[in-house]
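quick one, 323 residues, struct below
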Amino acid sequence: MDKFNSSIVSEFVLLGLSSSQELQLFFFFFFSVLYVIIVLGNILIILTVTSDASLHSPMYFLLGNLSFVDICQASFATPKMIADFLIEHKTISFSGCIAQIFFIHLFTGGEMVLLVSMAYDRYVAICKPLHYVIIMNRRTCAILVMISWTVGLVHTLSQLSFTVNLPFCGPNVVDSFFCDLPRVTKLACLDSYIIEILIVANSGILSLSTFSLLFSSYIVILVTVWFKSSAAMAKALSTLAAHIMVVILFFGPCIFIYVWPFTTYPVDKVLAIFYTIFTPILNPIIYTLRNRDMKTAMRKILIHYLKSKKISEMPLVPRNPLH
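---
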């Protein structure tokens, strides 16, 4: 607490993505559109999964939770970033900065484990189809989601335990569009080498372990399908290729930023866009638009909505009192 009280920095200055006024206006409209698509797209997935009885299965239950995490992950910093494009002097309070660090590691840590859970679900469905109903029951799905949130919470609290009591006495300029942990730690008024190593080890172990589990599960699935039939192999490869692309776009920047020696690079803030904005918008595309059941369910919801709207707009015909 004494260290915390010795901090004289009450706010941080965010440099954002660019200092060009023309680019900032372009970024404002571009990221505003992306954010609306992320929120509406993922809400549509959640509504579809919860309202259609044919989608009440473990795979879609996990997908609905992934959509919720994507909304949270895109919302912890994106609205402020969009608003900051219209402001010349971009600042964030000390507590607001700590809150951003807390939420980014909570949601990214949780999503990593959730992606592994979804890969495990596909592994059981393909490699152990006769035991799928027994293994992937409702209790197992609930436990997997609870584990993802627990890992995310433990991960972010352990990161904050290294950071929250650091003294900050200036400078207070963060070269990013949000309070990125490596850049904020560099601003501490002491030699933070040991803390940097602990942070890198914490994030590195989580990122590399979940990334390794994901790719291992994909390899096992492909090998299993390959022994069954070449046609099934081609279909599985087509599906998993899209999943692998999302995994690389999500884990790649995280591993680059947190696993390399604790040195910040100008490209870090660009890479951060991938796991805060691009991944939440890719997940609905990869997991729904390429999924026949999801498209059928969405079509049914749309038809039901249009019919309900048409009925509500029909004029009421007064009844003849003589009949």
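The first strand starts at residue 11 and ends at 14.
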